[in-house]
Write a structure and sequence with these properties.
With about 250 residues, the protein is mainly alpha-helical. It has 10 helices and 2 strands. Strands 1-2 form a two-stranded antiparallel ribbon. A hairpin with a 3-residue loop joins strand 1 and strand 2. Helix 5 runs antiparallel to helix 6 and helix 5 runs antiparallel to helix 9. The longest helix has about 45 residues. The relative contact order is 0.12.
Length: about 250
């Protein structure tokens, strides 16, 4: 049986892990920055970001205020950080491809009943608390309804599989959870633009609005994972501030 191809972020995480083993990246030293690593491994910065998060989850590195990511453990001390499956950026890239085309196809065949279902789903999304399970469920139902509207079972199966990966892959789950924690939630207005394009039976516009929406999800994820590092820095600052205040008032 042919082995599954190693994902790009796993390749980067594995290479850095090997570098730690070989002494290239020693415990206590700072890792190169995202841009440098992206150039070294000939990958995008989002791929590097996924690899860094995988290494953090695996307990090999940690963020330090104003300085970057540092190696804190050797691979023999922790579980393999590369076995975290699909990351959010890789997943969204696939969604841009498949869901963009699904929206374009759906625009040519969608019926009024499905449009009414999408309108109702938008209402559910708008009325739910942004970080609630109801809001997440409405988001999923919205996208799956569009895939089903194509009338092509292969398309709808692929889109559903991508959503299942989002909810089952440990790395993806971690990244989306961080995004929600930082206040990033489904944008109802962007989803409404997609429905308007579908209602107009405008295939090109449906493709564009779906892709634009998912590209903004990428931007949100980049911001959220960067905020994750900054949040740790703020926590350290607050901790130090509290210690100083305690000494001054003692």
């Amino acid at each position: 049986m042919k082995q599954r191809t190693e994902k790009l972020y796993q390749r980067v995480a594995s290479a850095i892990t090997e570098g730690i083993v070989q002494g290239r990246y020693r415990v206590g030293t700072r890792l190169p920055g995202e841009r440098e690593l992206a150039e070294d491994f000939s990958v995008s910065r989002p791929t590097v970001r996924e690899a860094m998060i995988a290494l953090e989850i695996g307990g090999l590195v940690e963020a330090r205020h104003g300085s970057g990511l540092y190696v804190i453990a050797s691979p023999t001390d922790v579980a393999n950080p590369a076995e975290l499956d699909v990351g959010a950026f890789e997943l969204i890239e696939a969604r841009i491809l498949f869901e963009g085309e699904a929206a374009a196809v759906a625009a040519t065949v969608i019926d009024d009943e499905t449009l009414a279902i999408l309108d109702g789903t938008l209402e559910d999304m708008a009325s739910a608390l942004p970080d609630s399970p109801e809001a997440m469920d409405a988001d999923r139902r919205f996208h799956l309804s569009i895939a089903e509207a194509t009338g092509n079972t292969v398309i709808s199966t692929v889109v559903e599989m991508l959503w299942n990966l989002r909810e089952q892959s440990p790395l993806s789950v971690h990244m989306f959870a961080e995004a929600r924690r930082e206040g990033i939630h489904p944008r109802v207005d962007e989803h409404r633009l997609i429905v308007e394009a579908l209602r107009a039976r405008d295939s090109a516009q449906a493709r564009k609005t779906m892709r634009d929406h998912l590209r903004r999800v990428v931007d949100d994820m980049l911001a959220a994972t960067e905020v994750e590092v900054l949040e740790r820095a703020r926590s350290e600052i607050e901790s130090q501030r509290g210690k100083v205040t305690q000494r001054l008032t003692a």
